[in-house]
Amino acid sequence: MNKNSILILLLILIGGVSIAQNSLPAVDLKTLDGQIINTSTLENDGKPIVISFWATWCSPCKRELNNINDVYEDWVEETGVRVIAISIDDARQVYKVGPYIEGVAWEFDVLLDVNSDFKRAMNVNNVPFTFLMDGDGNIVYKHNNYAEGDELELYEKILELVN
Description:
Elements: H1 3-21, E1 28-31, E2 36-38, E3 49-54, H2 59-79, E4 82-87, H3 97-104, E5 109-112, H4 117-121, E6 129-133, E7 139-144, H5 150-162
Parallel strand pairs: 3-4, 4-5
Antiparallel strand pairs: 1-2, 1-5, 3-6, 6-7
Helix pairs in contact: 2-5
Protein backbone atom coordinates (compact mmCIF):
# COMPACT_ATOMS: atom_id res chain seq x y z
CA MET A 1 0.00 0.00 0.00
CA ASN A 2 1.28 3.45 -0.80
CA LYS A 3 1.05 6.46 1.48
CA ASN A 4 -2.02 7.89 -0.29
CA SER A 5 -3.95 4.63 0.13
CA ILE A 6 -3.09 4.50 3.83
CA LEU A 7 -4.13 8.14 4.27
CA ILE A 8 -7.47 7.54 2.54
CA LEU A 9 -8.08 4.43 4.64
CA LEU A 10 -7.33 6.36 7.85
CA LEU A 11 -9.69 9.16 6.84
CA ILE A 12 -12.47 6.67 6.14
CA LEU A 13 -11.92 4.96 9.50
CA ILE A 14 -11.81 8.26 11.41
CA GLY A 15 -14.94 9.44 9.61
CA GLY A 16 -16.72 6.22 10.52
CA VAL A 17 -15.79 6.63 14.19
CA SER A 18 -17.09 10.19 14.31
CA ILE A 19 -20.37 9.12 12.70
CA ALA A 20 -20.76 6.31 15.25
CA GLN A 21 -20.25 8.76 18.11
CA ASN A 22 -23.02 11.00 16.78
CA SER A 23 -25.75 8.37 16.76
CA LEU A 24 -27.48 6.33 19.43
CA PRO A 25 -25.94 3.11 20.72
CA ALA A 26 -28.20 0.05 20.84
CA VAL A 27 -29.23 -0.46 24.49
CA ASP A 28 -32.34 -2.12 25.97
CA LEU A 29 -34.51 0.10 28.17
CA LYS A 30 -37.88 -0.54 29.80
CA THR A 31 -41.16 1.29 29.51
CA LEU A 32 -43.12 2.08 32.67
CA ASP A 33 -45.21 -1.03 32.06
CA GLY A 34 -42.14 -3.29 31.72
CA GLN A 35 -41.84 -3.66 27.94
CA ILE A 36 -38.31 -3.77 26.51
CA ILE A 37 -37.43 -1.05 23.97
CA ASN A 38 -34.08 -0.99 22.19
CA THR A 39 -32.73 2.51 21.67
CA SER A 40 -31.79 1.62 18.09
CA THR A 41 -35.52 1.56 17.30
CA LEU A 42 -36.24 5.08 18.57
CA GLU A 43 -37.47 7.16 15.65
CA ASN A 44 -39.84 9.97 14.77
CA ASP A 45 -40.63 9.75 11.06
CA GLY A 46 -37.70 11.98 10.09
CA LYS A 47 -38.46 14.64 12.69
CA PRO A 48 -36.25 15.70 15.65
CA ILE A 49 -36.03 13.76 18.89
CA VAL A 50 -35.03 15.15 22.29
CA ILE A 51 -33.57 12.65 24.75
CA SER A 52 -33.36 13.93 28.30
CA PHE A 53 -31.67 11.97 31.09
CA TRP A 54 -33.22 12.67 34.50
CA ALA A 55 -33.94 11.17 37.94
CA THR A 56 -36.66 11.60 40.54
CA TRP A 57 -34.07 12.87 43.06
CA CYS A 58 -32.84 15.58 40.64
CA SER A 59 -34.70 18.88 41.13
CA PRO A 60 -33.19 20.63 38.06
CA CYS A 61 -34.15 17.61 35.94
CA LYS A 62 -37.75 17.78 37.05
CA ARG A 63 -37.90 21.56 36.54
CA GLU A 64 -36.55 21.22 33.01
CA LEU A 65 -38.93 18.44 32.01
CA ASN A 66 -41.92 20.10 33.69
CA ASN A 67 -41.15 23.30 31.74
CA ILE A 68 -40.84 21.33 28.50
CA ASN A 69 -44.10 19.57 29.28
CA ASP A 70 -45.83 22.96 29.64
CA VAL A 71 -45.00 23.79 26.01
CA TYR A 72 -44.73 20.28 24.58
CA GLU A 73 -48.07 20.30 22.79
CA ASP A 74 -47.09 23.52 20.97
CA TRP A 75 -43.63 22.14 20.15
CA VAL A 76 -45.15 19.01 18.61
CA GLU A 77 -47.67 21.01 16.62
CA GLU A 78 -45.03 23.43 15.31
CA THR A 79 -42.08 21.05 14.74
CA GLY A 80 -43.21 17.44 15.16
CA VAL A 81 -40.51 16.91 17.80
CA ARG A 82 -40.64 13.88 20.07
CA VAL A 83 -39.33 14.10 23.64
CA ILE A 84 -38.15 10.97 25.44
CA ALA A 85 -37.26 11.24 29.13
CA ILE A 86 -34.80 8.57 30.29
CA SER A 87 -34.96 7.92 34.03
CA ILE A 88 -31.67 6.82 35.56
CA ASP A 89 -33.28 5.94 38.89
CA ASP A 90 -31.71 2.70 40.12
CA ALA A 91 -33.51 -0.46 41.27
CA ARG A 92 -34.03 0.98 44.77
CA GLN A 93 -35.63 4.20 43.47
CA VAL A 94 -37.36 3.22 40.20
CA TYR A 95 -40.66 2.61 42.02
CA LYS A 96 -40.95 6.42 42.39
CA VAL A 97 -40.91 7.12 38.64
CA GLY A 98 -44.45 5.98 37.74
CA PRO A 99 -46.22 7.88 40.53
CA TYR A 100 -44.19 11.01 39.78
CA ILE A 101 -45.07 10.86 36.06
CA GLU A 102 -48.75 10.37 36.89
CA GLY A 103 -48.65 13.31 39.28
CA VAL A 104 -47.13 15.76 36.79
CA ALA A 105 -48.90 14.27 33.74
CA TRP A 106 -45.97 14.42 31.33
CA GLU A 107 -47.21 13.95 27.79
CA PHE A 108 -43.97 12.56 26.39
CA ASP A 109 -42.46 9.07 26.57
CA VAL A 110 -40.57 7.97 29.68
CA LEU A 111 -38.14 5.06 29.57
CA LEU A 112 -36.20 3.43 32.41
CA ASP A 113 -32.42 2.94 32.42
CA VAL A 114 -32.27 1.17 35.78
CA ASN A 115 -28.73 -0.21 35.32
CA SER A 116 -27.44 3.02 33.70
CA ASP A 117 -26.35 1.11 30.58
CA PHE A 118 -27.67 3.77 28.20
CA LYS A 119 -26.34 6.55 30.42
CA ARG A 120 -22.84 5.03 30.24
CA ALA A 121 -23.08 4.35 26.51
CA MET A 122 -23.97 8.02 25.93
CA ASN A 123 -21.15 9.22 28.24
CA VAL A 124 -23.57 10.99 30.57
CA ASN A 125 -21.84 11.73 33.86
CA ASN A 126 -24.53 13.75 35.62
CA VAL A 127 -28.10 14.84 35.09
CA PRO A 128 -29.92 16.62 33.68
CA PHE A 129 -28.32 15.88 30.33
CA THR A 130 -30.19 16.58 27.10
CA PHE A 131 -29.47 15.45 23.55
CA LEU A 132 -31.13 16.65 20.35
CA MET A 133 -31.17 14.34 17.36
CA ASP A 134 -32.03 15.33 13.82
CA GLY A 135 -34.50 13.37 11.71
CA ASP A 136 -31.71 11.05 10.54
CA GLY A 137 -30.80 10.03 14.10
CA ASN A 138 -27.62 12.12 14.36
CA ILE A 139 -26.89 13.88 17.64
CA VAL A 140 -26.66 17.57 16.75
CA TYR A 141 -26.81 19.23 20.18
CA LYS A 142 -25.94 18.32 23.79
CA HIS A 143 -26.61 20.23 26.99
CA ASN A 144 -25.72 19.44 30.59
CA ASN A 145 -27.38 20.95 33.69
CA TYR A 146 -30.41 23.23 33.67
CA ALA A 147 -31.19 26.88 34.28
CA GLU A 148 -34.57 28.54 33.71
CA GLY A 149 -34.91 29.31 30.04
CA ASP A 150 -32.61 26.54 28.76
CA GLU A 151 -35.67 24.93 27.17
CA LEU A 152 -36.00 28.04 24.96
CA GLU A 153 -32.46 27.50 23.64
CA LEU A 154 -33.35 23.86 22.99
CA TYR A 155 -36.46 24.93 21.10
CA GLU A 156 -34.38 27.30 18.94
CA LYS A 157 -32.15 24.34 18.04
CA ILE A 158 -35.22 22.28 17.18
CA LEU A 159 -36.54 25.07 14.94
CA GLU A 160 -33.19 25.22 13.12
CA LEU A 161 -33.62 21.54 12.24
CA VAL A 162 -37.12 21.80 10.85
CA ASN A 163 -36.80 25.12 8.97
